[in-house]
TrEMBL record:
GO molecular function ontology, one term from the record: NADP+ binding
Name of this chain's protein: N-acetyl-gamma-glutamyl-phosphate reductase
Cellular localization per UniProt: Cytoplasm
Species: Kineobactrum salinum
Primary residence: cytoplasm
Annotated keywords: Amino-acid biosynthesis, Arginine biosynthesis, Cytoplasm, NADP, Oxidoreductase
Active-site residues (renumbered): C149
Reaction catalysis annotation: N-acetyl-L-glutamate 5-semialdehyde + phosphate + NADP(+) = N-acetyl-L-glutamyl 5-phosphate + NADPH + H(+)
Gene that specifies this protein: argC
Semialdehyde dehydrogenase NAD-binding domain boundaries: 3-141
Length: 343
């Protein structure tokens, strides 16, 4: 039985971890932290968990966390990097859902997050937790940086094309839209129902923090620099990401449908839809699954890939559990076989 701690249990990714781990037969959650809610029972804050947990939220205690086999950080940036060095020194393995260890270049991280990195020496040791690319490194990792939601959907869409050198790496365009839960659980006027319902808008068009992560990951696959134009949007839904990806083909394309199907044939959480079927966010809601389709409109020189995920599952907590399963030699699908919710 894997003894697990969760730092940051009151946000959407924290409660999603609790939901998924409640059905995982190989895991015991022994502590979950929240400074604001310390002493309050978890099932008082989240009644959907009644009967599954007897825990109360606790103040973060490095000694208690260090006694765990693995600690998830479901926190904003700049929290994990304060505690991770001490936990790693104690032999505890880490899956960080924040952005603290996703970018290998400390100066680049500081440029996008506006502060110095507290443990830059660990950046080179963190394994980027996209299983479809780094599964073997994840197996031995002590520190896994779980990918962001937009980067997961976008990279999984482009990876087969870049890995085969079929598209121009300098002209990639991603237009992607997320449900409101992607902004977190804190109160913001822009995320109120009355502000988002019946509306659709772009944000972060001049530059979004997920861009360097996307370019770093795709560059690793392409074997050299890539340049991505990334514009995120806010959807008037709670969960889901829909990414529409454009790239210029370098030659007459092979059978791209067969290419994608073959590339992801053995991936349990990537589903390449039949030719002509386009993915919808509703079909992956609640599931640790990315659904993809690939088309070449009018048979010209632009390929379009459509990619959908649930931003809280494959885009965050589900992928974190997937990483944990790999790290501890468990079946990769353990605790993650939920089917998407319809309607």
């Amino acid at each position: 039985m894997i003894r697990v701690g969760i730092v940051g249990g009151t946000g959407y990714t924290g409660v999603e971890l609790l939901r998924l781990l409640a059905m995982h037969e190989g895991v015991e959650v022994v502590t979950i932290t929240s400074r604001a809610e310390a002493g309050r029972r978890v099932d008082e804050q989240f009644p959907n968990l009644r009967g599954y947990y007897q825990l109360a939220f606790a103040e973060p205690d490095p000694g208690v966390l260090a006694s765990c086999d693995l600690v998830f950080f479901a926190t904003p940036h700049n929290v994990a990097m304060q505690l991770v060095p001490e936990l790693l020194a104690a032999g505890t393995r880490i899956v960080d859902l924040s952005a603290d260890y996703r970018i290998r270049d400390a100066a680049l991280w500081s440029q996008w997050y506006g502060e110095p990195h507290a443990s830059p020496d660990l950046l080179a040791h963190a394994v980027y937790g996209l299983p479809e690319v780094n599964r073997e490194q994840i197996r031995q990792a002590q520190l896994v940086a779980c990918p962001g939601c937009y980067p997961t959907a976008i990279q999984l869409g482009w990876i087969p094309l870049l890995a085969r050198g079929l598209v121009a790496p300098e002209g990639l365009i991603a237009s992607a839209a997320s449900g409101a839960s992607g902004a977190g659980r804190q109160a913001k006027v822009d995320n109120l129902l009355s502000e988002t319902a019946g509306s659709f808008k772009a944000y972060g068009a001049a530059g979004h923090r997920h861009l360097p992560e996307i370019e770093q990951g795709l560059g690793d696959v392409a074997g050299g620099p890539v340049a991505v134009t990334f514009v995120p949007h806010l959807l008037p839904i709670v969960r889901g990401i829909h990414a529409t990806l454009f790239a210029r083909l370098l030659a007459s394309p092979p059978d791209l449908q067969a290419l994608f199907e073959d590339y992801y044939r053995d991936e349990p959480f990537v589903d390449v839809l039949p030719a002509g079927v386009l993915p919808q966010t509703r079909t992956v809601k609640g599931a640790n699954r990315c659904q993809l389709s690939v088309i070449v409109p009018q048979q010209r020189d632009t390929v379009v890939v459509l990619s959908v995920i649930d931003n809280l599952v494959k885009g965050a907590s589900g992928q974190a559990v997937q990483n944990m399963n790999i790290m501890f030699g468990l079946p990769e699908t353990a605790g993650l076989e939920q089917i998407g919710l319809l309607p």
